[in-house]
Structures are given as C-alpha cells and as structure tokens.
Amino acid sequence: MDDLVRVTPLDQGALWRVTFGASKGNIIDGAMMAALNRTFLDAAAAPGLKAVCLEGAGSHFSFGASVREHLPDEVRDMLEGLRRLVLHMLDSHVVLIAAVRGQCLGGGLELASVCHRIVASAEARLGQPEITLGVFAPLASVVLPHRIGRPRAEDLCLTGRIVTAAEARDMGLVDDIAAGDPSDAAIAWARAAFTGRSASSLRLAVKAIRAPLTAAVREQLPALEALYLEELMATHDAAEGLRAFLEKRPPAWRHA
User: What are the beta bridge partners of residue 5?
Assistant: First the structure.
C-alpha cells in the first residue's frame, strides 16, 4: 500500500484494481511516477496476475504530468521518469486496462494510451493539450500512432483539442463507454476475457503482441526526448508557454 497508489487484488490475485492519485487532478509528478513504478515492478513479479485496471482517484483520471516539472531545470528528469514508468508498464507483460472518468489529459492520456483497452465514462474528456503550452508530447508522438493511426494522432497532438468520450470511441482511442462506473466495467470485461486462461501463457502473448510498441518506446522515444530538450527548450516560446500557464496569464509568443 502506498499513499499515492492503492492496489486492490481481486479474484485471488488474478486481477488488480490500481488507483492512483491524492489530489483533485491526480497530477503525474516525480513522486507519482516513482509510486507507479513500484506498483508495476510488483505486478511483473506476481505470477498469477493477468490484468491490471488503472484508474485515477476521485472524479478524474489525470490532468496530466506536472507543468512545473516541465520547466528547464526539471524537464530532463521528468521525461526520463515517464519513459521509465511506461517501460515498466510494458515490461510487466500483463493486460492493462485504463478506466477513465472526467479529465484524461496530457501525460494522463499517454499512460492510458499504453493500456490495451480504455473504458471511459460518458462524460470523460481526453486530449493531448501540450501544444497549447508551447511544447509537445514525446511519448504521445510514439504511442498514439500505434493506437489510433498517424492522421488521428496528428490531429490530437497538433491541435491540442479535447475530445468527448463518444468522439474518442469513434477514432479508436476509447474502446468502450460504460453505462456505470468505468472501473467496474473494465473489471467485468477482464473477468469475461481471462477467467480460465493461463496467466503465464497470457503474459507471453502480451509480450509478443506488444513487441513492436515496446521496441518503438525503447528506440524512438529517446530521440524525441533529445529533440524536446535540445531544440524545443532552447526556444523562448516553450518556457513562456509553461510559465504563462503557471502564472495564469495568456502567453506572449515570439514564434521563436
């Protein structure tokens, strides 16, 4: 048990409900990433575990990664920490299901998009709004094309627009819109799909089907992080957009 991440084993440990967050927006900062890392390392070491349902505490999945940790002095550690977390999620080789309520934005959508399945509530809103702050999303640039195809991934990453659960389902981002609680619906789907399956065989099937995505994260993401750190953060507008958000004012773009 962790103050930031709570694990509830179900069905004699075949399923885990993993609830993260301690604030209204369940911000994914360094401490949260460390807590989730420990959780997925534990998941990898739990031989009978078949699936993890990941949900945010309260009424939202996540408002995203900490904007303050995007600032020049901290952004390298933030990017490396997010890559480490996603690799731990992928290397756990269990089925991952995101149960999305409320806002699922930025780094929150990146984590959800790594999951095999996203189950959303009808009022959920999803998006990659980083461009509105003058930055871009390295992880989403790798993961979203695998999930929804390049044109739709480019739509979300380049416009920064927020989509409804219904539109997200139409574009293949969301797999199911739950009539009730999306976490309950996600658990019900996992029980129907995996009860009676061998956990060890399922993990190897996950490893096989996820091999291209895992390779892309390992091989492509570091280059996009370098683009972010060496080119984007050398511009005026990247830092200006982030500071304007934190200071609750419109950004003064120089377009350079």
Answer: 20
Domain coordinates of the chain in residue numbers?
A: 5-194
Catalytic residues: 130
Long-range contacts of 76-79 (CB under 8 A, 24+ apart): 76/229, 77/30, 78/30, 79/138, 79/225, 79/228, 79/229
Say what the pTM is. 0.96
3-state helix, strand, coil in the chain (%, to 5): 50, 15, 30
Question: How far is it, in rounded angstroms, from Cα 60 to Cα 27?
Answer: 10
The CATH number assigned to the domain with range 5-194 reads: 3.90.226.10
Burial of 223 (0-12, 13-18, 19+ CB in 10 A): exposed
**pLDDT averaged over the chain?**
97
HSE of 202 in the Cβ direction (CA atoms, 13 Å)? Answer: 21
